[in-house]
Specification:
This protein is an alpha/beta fold. It folds into 2 domains: 120 residues, Alpha-Beta Complex (Aspartate Aminotransferase, domain 1); 228 residues, Type I PLP-dependent aspartate aminotransferase-like (Major domain) (Aspartate Aminotransferase, domain 2), CATH 3.40.640.10. Helix content is 39%, strand content 16%. It is built from 14 helices and 13 strands. The strands form 3 sheets. It has a 7-stranded mixed β-sheet, with helices on both faces. A 4-stranded antiparallel β-sheet has the order 9-10-13-12, with helices on one face. Helix 5 runs parallel beside helix 11. The protein is globular. Bound molecules: pyridoxal-5'-phosphate (PLP). The site of pyridoxal-5'-phosphate (PLP) has 14 residues, from helix 6.
């Protein structure tokens, strides 16, 4: 053992951050409990598998993985530029959208500045921000009894922005709550923010929102030079394992992010799969419909069992068990169902449950009914 305390040598911001806790992998539970037929409803993955077009394209590229990927991501950016009616120089590709969130923090924050985000925000924001040594201002969320339970309090977030604020992070819909903002209030918020403050709208789950509740902030890019919208192929496109996401912004901000990203941050199977998946509208539609069906089933289960939940336009539901949720989590594990504890988000009585197939939701319904009866 070394006598050196490496922890104390780490950058001060890094010492303070709380590591990300991922969902439990299926194989780990198999090893631990020796059971089979496990379903994972813990990481908001697509229960239908990957986009078939995306998968085929990734497989076709495997014979060329001796070559570096196209570091400019030319073809994928071209497809995305068309999809979003922007120019390629407005796009920054990332190793998952997590990568572009980190690039935003690295590109714009120093210890003199701060970033604003909400209580119950996505765990990656504090990690990305604190690693830079910047300060963070976490704004209390709305209460359970409000019109948007556990949702962002935009008025309070606006009030938290000061002369040293460089970044604001908002996931819409938000993870882990599933809460969402309507287009008018979000538009008004962005309009109220000074131009030197960059507003990042993380739309990882946008594809799951019904049309009448869907807020696509990318349509405001030409209106707000300080707006950055992030998207991912990890959720509705089913490509989480390949790691590819992107930011849309004005070209000046994209230029900063492209300066600091690794030259080959997106691998070649990921580039090919994402490009093919952009056009896989059938798969996207099936993902949406399956999610709507499963969401209705899980809400029905909650109503029947008297459990409250946060209304969600994402592919998961935050369910409140009204008591320590860990025993429920453990019993679900023994039933072969992995959900996500959210005590690390300050929600010890809740579990975040990903919407699976109707068969998954039926199994969950039976397991929860059993657990809560006994
Ligand atoms: C899942 C998720 C992402 C996507 O992460 P990737 O790195 O693209 O896999 C981004 N933001 C939020 C809020 C998420 O829940």
């Amino acid at each position: 053992m070394s006598m050196c305390d490496y922890f104390s040598l780490a950058a001060p911001g890094v010492q303070q951050l709380k590591p990300y806790i991922p969902g439990k992998p299926i194989e780990e539970l198999e090893r631990e409990l020796g059971i089979e037929n496990i379903i994972k409803l813990a990481s908001n993955e697509n229960p239908l598998g990957p986009s078939p077009h995306g998968r085929q394209a990734a497989e076709a590229v495997l014979q060329d993985i001796n070559l570096y990927p196209d570091g400019s991501g030319f073809q994928l950016k071209k497809a995305l530029a068309e999809k979003h009616a922007v120019t390629s120089d407005q796009i920054t590709l990332g190793n998952g959208s997590n990568d572009v969130l980190v690039l935003l923090a690295e590109g714009f924050l120093t210890p003199e500045f701060n970033a604003v985000y909400s209580q119950y925000c996505f765990a990656v924001y504090p990690i990305a921000v604190q690693a830079t040594g910047a300060r963070h201002k976490q704004v209390p969320a709305q209460g359970w009894g409000s019109a948007s339970p556990l949702g962002h309090d935009l008025k309070a977030m606006r009030a938290a922005i000061d002369a040293r604020t460089r970044l604001v992070f908002i996931a819409n819909p938000n993870n882990p709550t599933g809460s969402y903002l309507n287009a008018d209030s979000l538009h008004d918020f962005i309009a109220s923010v000074p131009e030197q403050v960059i507003v990042v709208i993380d739309e990882a789950y946008l594809e799951y929102a019904p049309q009448d509740k869907r807020c696509d902030a990318s349509q405001w890019l030409s209106e707000f030079p300080n707006l950055v919208v992030t998207r991912t192929f990890s959720k509705a496109y089913g490509l989480a394992g390949l790691r590819v996401g992107y930011a849309l912004s004005n070209p000046d901000i994209a230029n900063i992010l492209n300066r600091i990203r690794q030259p080959f941050n997106v691998n070649s199977p990921a580039l090919a799969a994402a490009q093919a998946a952009v056009g896989d509208v059938d798969f996207l539609q099936r993902s949406y419909e399956t999610n709507q069906q499963g969401m209705a089933m899980l809400q029905e289960t909650c109503h029947r069992l008297g459990l409250r939940y946060v209304p969600s336009t994402a592919n998961f539901l935050l369910v409140d068990f009204g008591r320590d949720a860990m025993p429920v989590f453990d019993r679900l594990l023994h039933a072969g169902i992995i959900t996500r504890p959210v005590a690390n988000y300050g929600l010890p009585e809740c579990l975040r449950i990903t919407i699976g197939t109707p068969q998954h939701m039926q199994r969950l319904d039976h397991a929860l009914t059993d657990i809560l009866a006994g």
